[in-house]
Amino acid sequence: MKANVTITLKKGVLDPQGKAIEGALHSLGFDGVENVRQGKLIELELPETDREAARAQVEAMCEKLLANTVIESYRIDLV
Amino acid sequence: MKANVTITLKKGVLDPQGKAIEGALHSLGFDGVENVRQGKLIELELPETDREAARAQVEAMCEKLLANTVIESYRIDLV
Questions:
Q1: Domain ranges of chain A
Q2: Residues of A in contact with B30 (CB under 8 A)
Q3: A20 to chain B, closest Cα gap in Å
Q4: Which tens digit of pLDDT belongs to each residue from B63-77?
Q5: What is the mean pLDDT of chain B?
Q6: Fold of B2-78
Q7: DSSP bridge partners of A34
Q8: A60 contacts in B (CB within 8 Å)?
Q9: Which one of B22, B38, B51, B61 has the lowest number of neighbouring Cβ atoms within 10 Å?
């Protein structure tokens, strides 16, 4: 089974990378761009075929490694 | 208008970060995990209200800055 994990910074957490991208876009002439936030997308495949078991496994992966749950939130999409 | 840009490595391009995550997951006991690939998700807001014009602007942002189109492909979702 394939899983897509989207990891984004929680609201209110400062995003220096997003700010840097926003500044660069402005300098390239894209003036009106605002609230640029950068997150991660992790695609993976796991042998589990049962959707609920697969979701539980990916959740455990997020909690243990993929996301820093203090400042990041994650969304799991099973494909 | 809000846009989500998903940037992923093109097929066949080596993904050392993905490999590192895969190895770490294995060492945490998630043995069967395979084909781990890491990409970027960039969320941004632009003042443009016309969807086509907004898509064209975001495409220009991708081509000029957000994606390295030699090794990366991008997908634009207008929200």
A1: 2-78
A2: 46, 57, 60-61
A3: 11
A4: 999 999 999 999 999
A5: 97
A6: Mth169; Chain: A , (3.30.1280)
A7: B45
A8: 30
A9: B51
b/e per residue, B35-62, with b = 16+ CB within 10 A? ebbbbbbbbbebebeeeeebbebbbebb
Interface test with B, best of A25, A27, A35, A48 (most B CBs within 10 A): A25
Q: Mean of the pLDDT values across residues A51-66?
A: 97
Please spell the DSSP secondary structure of A10-74, one letter per residue: PTTS--HHHHHHHHHHHHTT-TT-EEEEEEEEEEEE-S--SHHHHHHHHHHHIIIII--TTTEEE
Q: Which residues on A lie below 8 Å from B62 (Cβ)?
A: none
Question: Which of the four pLDDT bands, split at 50, 70 and 90, describes residue A27?
Answer: very high
pLDDT grade, residue B40 (50/70/90)?
very high
Numbered residues of chain B with Cβ closer than 8 Å to any chain A Cβ: 6, 8, 18, 21-22, 24-25, 28, 30, 32-48, 57, 60-61, 64-66
